[in-house]
Amino acid sequence: MNAETEFETRCGFVALIGAPNAGKSTLINQLVGAKVSIVSRKVQTTRSLVRGIAIEGKAQIIFVDTPGIFAPKRRLDRAMVSSAWGGAGDADAVALLVDARKGVDEEVEAILARLGQVGAAKILVLNKIDTVEPPRLLELAAKLNAELPFAETFMISALRGHGVLKLKQQLAALMPPGPWLYPEDQISDAPLRSLAAEITREKIFERLHDELPYQSTVETELWKDMPDGSARVEQTIYVMREGHKKIVIGEGGRTIKAIGTAARKEIMAAAEQTVHLFLFVKVRENWPDDPERYREMGLEFPKN
């Protein structure tokens, strides 16, 4: 009996790769139908592999939202890019997401050069099509397929959801026969405490996009279920300078209070319980060189 007849169900992994801000996190949230990856206009917000789980017919698709692929300069950058290519190498299919407005730039060219070495089925996804005229879209699709032949090309708007269902259906058909790896109602493999930290980090970026440098991180230090069914959640925001700490706290604590209020609302929705959120800010100048911080983010610590 072969796998086709043995299993009615299908299950596999799809890696979403692309340059920073191509829209991978927005797309994975659309595909899953719930928030599993943080979205920010600040580039490189996704740092580790985020897995979102979707059901399409009899197929279970595990989407891996990878960090944006870019030219790494720092240790953290190298860890993120290594994580992205690791996710692509382990997948059953790889979807390259390209911002149709930007078209083919140096970052996309670099990805194409390396993507040819990946053995999985390759799908091209042009995103933000609502911002580009159709003739230019067709020209862009032809140019990309000339550089690297893709099994299929899709044109979508991840933000508006246009074309996303058709993409999901095709990806489901590419999944190999086999049993589902997760329960039907599970939408992510990230522990709640990790998702909670990511939600708070998103709220920091949203509020302090222009003021706070990229190098801040959040860790959930405590998640304690209380007798009344609520949860006490304590998180630490790590920044690299005393001046950054003042920015996060804000005058009279107003900024951190607003961040906490916005984060608590989304953490409660994800946890489906009342959450009491307590935020602390600490200066840790060398956190991008601390292996423990990388483990917390699910990244391999680059040795040099």
UniProtKB/TrEMBL annotation:
- Descriptive protein name: GTPase Era
Gene3D superfamilies recorded for this chain?
Answer: 3.30.300.20, P-loop containing nucleotide triphosphate hydrolases
Spell out the CDD domains in the cross-references. Era, KH-II_Era
Decide whether keyword rRNA-binding is in the record. yes
Source superkingdom: Bacteria
**G4: region residues:** 127-130
Keywords attached to this entry: Cell membrane, Cytoplasm, GTP-binding, Membrane, Nucleotide-binding, Ribosome biogenesis, RNA-binding, rRNA-binding
Question: Which residue ranges are recorded for the region named G1?
Answer: 18-25
Question: Which residue ranges does the record annotate as region G5?
Answer: 156-158
Q: What does this protein do?
A: An essential GTPase that binds both GDP and GTP, with rapid nucleotide exchange. Plays a role in 16S rRNA processing and 30S ribosomal subunit biogenesis and possibly also in cell cycle regulation and energy metabolism.
Write out the annotated subcellular location.
Answer: Cytoplasm; Cell membrane
Annotated GTP binding sites:
18-25, 65-69, 127-130
For this chain, the family text in UniProt reads: Belongs to the TRAFAC class TrmE-Era-EngA-EngB-Septin-like GTPase superfamily. Era GTPase family.
Q: Where are the residues of the annotated region G3? A: 65-68
Q: Where is the KH type-2 domain?
A: 208-285
Q: State whether it acts alone or in a complex, and with which partners, per the record.
A: Monomer.
Q: Which PROSITE patterns match?
A: G_ERA, KH_TYPE_2
